[in-house]
Specification:
single chain, elongated, mainly alpha, 6 helices
């Protein structure tokens, strides 16, 4: 069984296995993260947060894979978006979608563990 979290300096085989995830993390972490925003602007508030796992692992293994992006900044921009600027119900519940108020039963499983 592999350790959790993964080692910050994984071996070559582990880095090769992480490559698809690192490519996703690189694509969303390459922008400006000075303001709250979703990692992926797709109209959902939950789907972009689900990319947070890739961003966090990329940040953890940054030295090993030579990451040049601000993964921590990208993760923070996503969390800040959900908690500060995202669409919410009057009681504070976060809407699943950007337009209108919607609660989906899968929301907590998609992004609940990233907030």
């Amino acid at each position: 069984m592999e350790s959790l979290p993964p080692p910050s300096k994984p071996g070559e085989a582990a880095l090769a296995a992480l490559q698809p995830m690192l490519e996703i993390a690189n694509s969303v972490a390459s922008g400006d993260h000075s303001r709250p925003h979703p990692l992926v602007p797709d109209g959902s508030q939950a789907d972009p947060a689900s990319v947070g796992v890739a961003v966090l692992i990329a940040n953890l293994t940054k030295d090993a894979h030579g990451g040049k992006y601000d993964y921590a900044g990208a993760a923070w921009a996503q969390v800040a978006y959900l908690l500060r600027t995202g669409v919410k119900f009057p009681d504070g519940a976060i809407s699943h979608r950007d337009e209108g108020l919607q609660i989906w039963c899968v929301f907590n499983s998609i992004c609940g563990n990233k907030v």
